[in-house]
Amino acid sequence: MASEKSKILVVGGTGFLGRHVVAASARLGHPTFALVRDPAPSDPAKAQLLQGFQESGVTLLKGDLYNHGSLVTAVKAADVVVSTLGALQLADQTRLIAAIKETGNVKRFFPSEFGLDVDRTGAVEPAKSIFARKAAIRRAVEASGVPYTYVVAGYFAGFALPSIGQALSRAPPTDKAVVLGDGDAKAVFVEEGDIATYTVLAADDPRAANKTIYIKPPANTLTHNELLALWEKKTGKAFERVYLPEDAVLKQIQESPIPLNIILAIAHAVYVRGEQTGFEIDPAKGVDATDLYPDVKYTTVDEYLNRFL
């Protein structure tokens, strides 16, 4: 008989990635819980999202990251806790760790990660400080003794691909495309629903326990130049490439306001330093998601770009 699927609690489930994790958990047959401050919000879009959760069998648990009692109650309902909290609440995940430690019933914790590997990044400020907060949470999780999985997933497709990889634009290029560096560093682009699927699959997988799971789909690992060439082929239109050397990128990071400076600092790490792909996975510390779950039919970059035609 198949083992019973773990009960999954998602903290930050109404956010950009969190809603996908909630949906994937329910779709894959896990008893799923979402921590929400207000189960009946006045915001119509959020109310509709929560209604959709409930219609798919998700249980809404009223609680707050800053209310320890409610957090403990929610954590008691779960075997696995997945945090998808945003940048402003990363450091406050210590509250979640404390609740998990107190209840003693959680068999796996996924802190909010899903980007670059924060233990091996050389990102410049202001991204450096954000990644330092994520690394500090990793150390806190490890010190707590709670089993964990860290998910490293490259770029969210929904963030990077609408501009065809351009960090300085939110739209596809028309006449020219701005490329950071020489455009030859490999980057990884993963659809948010696929990130969620791999995350949920890892929840009950002993092979992912106390390791970093790297989501690097082969068809989605390509240089910015290759990405632009793919878009040119699809649109039948060529455009000029404007290459920004590293010193110009660094200068622009220093001179840009929030959040553009953060976006550029991350893009510098990816497109100039090549941090998403320029390393080998240490099998003692990490695993490749596409090796663990070869049957997952992920959305390719090629398929994703068709949404913009």
TrEMBL record:
InterPro entries hit by this protein: NAD(P)-bd_dom_sf, NmrA-like, NmrA-type/Isoflavone_red_sf, PCBER-like
Keyword hit for Transmembrane helix: no
Keywords, sorted A to Z: NADP, Oxidoreductase
SUPFAM superfamilies named in the record: NAD(P)-binding Rossmann-fold domains
Keyword Oxidoreductase: yes
Residue span, NmrA-like domain: 4-305
A molecular-function term among this protein's GO annotations: oxidoreductase activity
The protein's name in its UniProt record: NmrA-like domain-containing protein
Origin organism lineage: Eukaryota, Viridiplantae, Streptophyta, Embryophyta, Tracheophyta
Originating gene: ga23774
